[in-house]
Every structure is written in structure tokens, then in C-alpha cells.
Amino acid sequence: MQTHTTNSGPKRLHNSNQTTSHSVQGSALPVLVWLIAMLVTTVGAAADPLAEVSVPQLSHDLADAEYQDVILLIAAATDLEPYLDGLQRFAEDRDSATERNSIYRDLGMRAYLLGDIEGAARYLAKAHTSTYPDIDSLLLAAHAAYLVGQYDTAQEHIQHILNSSDVTAVRQQALTVLGLMRIAAGHDLAAVSIFEPFRSSPEQVAVPELLYVLVRYELTLDASMRRDPGEYFRVLQDRFPDHPVTELTREFLRSGSRGSDGLVTQMPTPEFFLFAHRTAAAETGPLPDRSAEREGDPRPGADRAAETGGDAAQDTATDAAPEDGPRGIQVGSFGLRENAEHMRTDMEEAGFPVLIEEQQRSDRLYYSVIIPLTGRHAETLADSFGTADQERIYLEIRAAGYDGFRVY
């Protein structure tokens, strides 16, 4: 759910000041964020659909493996142990820093989801040697580093996140964990100041995990300060009726537990991290075997990077997204429309339908490159890849050397 970025980028892109949809830049600002301990029994208990993905039969040493096949292997692995030596050697043999970091990033994310927090911290630390790490894995890296006691590393990751992202959900997740960190440190008044805007306007909350925290947080306060936790739960039920966190919150309220019991350490893993790993609403079968196409396929490699610049745009999404799902996957963001057009050409040659949308951020106009998932665009995806299932399409994006995140 990220976008690869390199320091050189495609030569035809005209500005070396690079940023992508998930690039992370910014000055240091001491902050701590996204503390989540996985509740396997609620969010991760369902069978992982990626375990059923068809991947090439690769030997453990991976000596002759292709980059795209290794990415699919990591995504589908239910046990990384037999492949670890081969994966690390494969990563270190990459001439491309982008590919090397990408493999360690995916390895770290998969280790996290399999419950190997120490491994996740180790691999994600290796992944973030580049100047422009991605937000999704930075959130996981910060959480993993915090859990294993690497507080300086966690703080470094988090300051990048808060300084660079203007995505509402990301910032709310960041503020959620910042509040939890203040609670863990015994700084209750600081936590109050962080949570107060959301307590006053719970309808503005964009992520279910924050509403869950608010329910529990109210029960930690003195009666004189406490608000009705049911108010947050009603918003949660209305906005996220089928979300696992809604059921988790319902069970918590029924249990009569104190809000402080495990508040800091027993957070559900947010769906934000599980885009490519969560159980699909409906399975559409395994990925088609595209190995024969790859040999001569001019699909863009992992070194293709998005860069920035500045100009005017026209395209907008034409199909409305379903209320319970994303309308598309953003794979790049540019200041120059010409650069966005170059990426669109590459993506369309690889079989992806693409839209370019204008986005105003911090008094500057950006051009976001989005692969739509709905309407007629879903038919194009099905024609190209044999499926329009978003998890499968995400894997195809990754295999093509790109990353992205959902947009609604």
C-alpha cells in the first residue's frame, strides 16, 4: 500500500524533487504514534485469502527467482522460516535499492502479520534506509519498534509520518496512538488534549479504531469528566456496522471490563495495515498464471518512481464507489501533470485503467494517479487480469513494481 520512490527516477520525469502517494518527507518533530497490539482473535482470526494465491514453485534459496515472484511468495506465505535465508540473500543481491527495500518492507509486514514482532522490527528497519519510506510500513515499523523497546527508532518513524501525511485516516491513527502513548507514560492531561476534539465531535472520526479507543478511554476518566461511551459506539455502529472493530467494541461494552484494562497493549490491528492481507468479502479464485507473459512483458519495474513538479489537470473519477469499499488505488502523486501522464501511460500499457485527479494540498496542486476499482473500470481489470478483486489487483500492482493505497 505504498509507492516506490528512488532518488533518480525515470529520466523523462522533469523534476528531481520526488514524492509519491506514500512518500514520507519532512523535518524532525518529536512525536510518538500508532501503538497497536494485534488481537488475532478478532481481526486476524479469519483464514488469510493470500495463503491460497497461486505462486511459482520456488526453491528455498531463490537463486533464480524473479522479483515479481518473490513479492507474490512473501504475500502468500503462511510460514516464512523456510525462505528467510534465501529471501535475505535475494534482497542483498538486488542492484536496485528500491527493490531491496521493497523486499525487506514486504518481509517485515508479513512477519508482523504472522506474529513475529521482533522479525518485523528487524526487517522493517532494513527497509527504511531510503530517503522516502512509505507510510504503511512506517506505521508498522514504529509499532514493532515500540513493542521491542526501540523507542528512538519508533519516534523517528512517527515524526516522519506526522510531518508528511495529510490523509485524514492516517493522521487520526497517528493522534490515536499519540494519545495512547501519553496514557502509557502517565501523562493523562496530555492525552485529554489530544482526544478532546474527537470527544466533542465523534462524527468527524474517520477510523473505527479511534472510536474504539474513545469508548475505552472514557471509562478511565473520573465520573466528573466522563462522557457517555455509548455515544461513540452509536457512531461506530452507524458508520462501520460490519467492521470487526465494531463487534470488538460491542463485546467490550457487554463484558463490563474497566476501560484501562489492556487499553494500551490490546489494540486491534487496523484494517489500514491489512489491505492486501485481510479476508476478501468474496473470493474470485487464485491469480492467473502470468509467468509466460513476464519474460517479454515491458511492464514497469520497481525502479520506476513517481516524482513531483506543478501544472493543471482535468480527469476525475466517473464511477461512484460502493459505500463499503474503496473507489480506487492511488499509485502516485505529482506536481507536474506531465509526470502523471507518463505514469498513466506506463500503467495502461501494463493493463491497468487509470484516472488522474486534481488534489489541492497545502496551497499546491497535485495530480494523483488512481487505478479505479468500480463500474466499467472493474471490467477492464477483469479483462486484463482475470479478476477485479481488490486484493488480487493490489498484488498485480505490486508485481508490476508499484505500490499504492486505497482512496474512497
TrEMBL record:
<feature type="compositionally biased region" description="Basic and acidic residues">
    <location>
        <begin position="290"/>
        <end position="306"/>
    </location>
</feature>
<feature type="region of interest" description="Disordered">
    <location>
        <begin position="283"/>
        <end position="332"/>
    </location>
</feature>
<protein>
    <submittedName>
        <fullName>Sporulation related protein</fullName>
    </submittedName>
</protein>
<dbReference type="InterPro" id="IPR036680">
    <property type="entry name" value="SPOR-like_sf"/>
</dbReference>
<feature type="region of interest" description="Disordered">
    <location>
        <begin position="1"/>
        <end position="22"/>
    </location>
</feature>
<dbReference type="InterPro" id="IPR011990">
    <property type="entry name" value="TPR-like_helical_dom_sf"/>
</dbReference>
<dbReference type="GO" id="GO:0042834">
    <property type="term" value="F:peptidoglycan binding"/>
</dbReference>
<feature type="compositionally biased region" description="Low complexity">
    <location>
        <begin position="307"/>
        <end position="320"/>
    </location>
</feature>
